[in-house]
Amino acid sequence: MLVVDDEPGVRKALQRGLRAEGMDVVTAADGPSGLQLASTGSFDVVLLDIMLPGLSGYRVLERLRKDGVTTPVLLVSAKDGEIDQADGLDLGADGYLVKPFSFVVLVAQVRAVLRRVGPDAGRGTLRLGALEVDRGLRQVHWNGEEVGLSPREFALLDVLVGRAGTVVTKDELLRAVWGEEQAVTRNLVEVYVGYVRRKLDAVGAGALLRTVRGHGYLASDAELDEVITP
């Protein structure tokens, strides 16, 4: 989940609360950063404040929809006027929350949105810099050049880019890519990350996958690093 809000206290509280609900949370503090992160297509839901420095939530949402990003967006505003809500929904928002809102209501809205969009919501294209991961066609391109991956390699890269900006542990990759298969160990994750990294290296994209020692693996680039708030 991506939370875009210019108030540090709000970001921290939402991040703590949503993580307690089992969600991975990335935050951004202004409109341009939120747009850049949301444009990757790697989030299940975006919680987007309307009053943001640099670019309003309305304009961020408008750009996302214009660029074909269909990620569900919940707008957040201190205004509760019908016209404000209608404007947001007309731009393609999936819901509207008025500050101050109940955290319980927020979680319920997030889960309701995820139920509405269904299991095929993530079949679009993920973008990380010049890397594109087409989940529908199961193809990967770097600067327009196709990167040939096996089905298992694609699944692993899909998970990592789908959670760009966050560290994914070996155990999480094991569950997501191999499921309940027997005789699969963490060493196999290292092997397959190595396979994927070498293929990305061959086209100049190897730096996108990083090992975070003692924790797992991270898909990110310099631009993404700059806009993710701690």
From TrEMBL:
Q: Does the keyword DNA-binding apply?
A: yes
Q: Where is the OmpR/PhoB-type domain?
A: 123-221
Per the database record, which ranges form the Response regulatory domain? 1-114
- For whether the record's keyword set contains Phosphoprotein, the answer is yes
Q: Which domain of life is it from?
A: Bacteria
Q: What is this protein called?
A: DNA-binding response regulator
Q: Which GO terms describe its cellular component?
A: cytosol; protein-DNA complex
* GO terms of molecular function: phosphorelay response regulator activity; transcription cis-regulatory region binding
Signal peptide position in this chain? none
Q: Which Pfam families does this entry report, sorted A to Z?
A: Response_reg, Trans_reg_C
What keywords tag this UniProt record? DNA-binding, Phosphoprotein
Q: Name one GO biological process term.
A: regulation of DNA-templated transcription
Q: Which PANTHER family match?
A: REGULATOR OF RPOS (PTHR48111), TRANSCRIPTIONAL REGULATORY PROTEIN CUTR (PTHR48111:SF36)
Q: DNA-binding region spans which residues?
A: 123-221
Entries under PROSITE patterns matching the protein: OMPR_PHOB, RESPONSE_REGULATORY
List of residues that carry 4-aspartylphosphate: D49
